[in-house]
Design goal:
With 228 residues, the chain is an alpha/beta fold. It folds into 2 domains: 2-164, SPOUT methyltransferase, trefoil knot domain (Alpha/beta knot); 174-227, no CATH class. It is built from 11 helices and 7 strands. It has a 7-stranded parallel beta sheet.
């Protein structure tokens, strides 16, 4: 399982360089950027210090939705709870949940929002999981690269566990199961404008591989019934 760090429209070059350094020292190598500020010279290069290779091979996208097409799982970060999502998890809960989904998830991205405003509501809705950093005070908030360092440190203690897991039994990826479930719910009468539809899909995000396999079996039964 590969972890990818995603910065959405980072406006301060130094934050991009510092994030590259933070993830490299914690054993990660993938940095994706959404409409970034200049990041291959100046302050970004200086702050990267020994991690310039991370900047050189960083992938650049026009939107988080575009980057999400290349991921099995997208984890958003937020300093405050939004009404559009009900299920939030602490940063410290992520590693154990990734272990539960290790067969259906080959790669995952952790998206960090803009320095001033974070992720938009639309971007939050794209995310499968939403996480936060437990803090003693709500202000001042953490700097972008500091937040990335904390996530990288938390996740780095579990990478060896993910590498040892046998994925040969996996038949359906996390994203495929969600897509099939969405199609099935539409077949049996759910509408896009119904809040219950998004709530069902959000709850499915919390399931591990064993429960997802059960969901997949139910999906097949329903689809076969409507085909017959």
């Amino acid at each position: 399982m590969e972890g990818i760090f995603i910065l959405v429209e980072p406006a301060i070059p130094g934050n991009i360089g510092a994030t590259a350094r933070a993830i490299k020292v914690m054993g990660f190598s993938q940095l994706w950027l959404i409409k970034p500020a200049t990041y291959l010279d100046g302050e970004a290069k200086w702050r990267a210090h020994g991690s310039y290779d991370i900047l050189e091979k960083a992938r650049v996208f026009n939107s988080l939705a575009e980057a999400n097409q290349h991921l099995d799982l997208l984890i958003g970060t937020s300093a405050k709870k939004r009404r559009i999502k009900e299920d939030y998890m602490s940063m410290e809960e992520i590693p154990s949940k990734l272990v539960l989904n290790s067969e259906s998830v080959q790669n995952f991205g952790i998206a960090f929002g803009r320095e001033e405003s974070g992720l938009t509501n639309k971007e939050i809705q794209l995310c499968d999981w939403i996480s936060y950093i437990p803090m003693q005070t709500s202000y001042p908030s953490l700097n972008l690269s500091q937040a990335a360092m904390l996530y990288a440190y938390t996740l780095s203690r579990h990478t060896k566990i993910w590498q040892k897991i046998d994925r040969t039994a996996s038949q359906q990826g996390f994203r495929n199961i969600k897509s099939n479930l969405y199609d099935t719910l539409k077949i049996i009468g759910f509408k896009d404008n119904q809040p219950i539809l998004s709530r069902i899909l959000e709850r499915v995000n919390q399931l591990g591989d064993k429960d997802l396999n059960l969901v997949h079996s139910v999906i097949n039964k329903i689809q076969n019934y409507y085909k017959s």
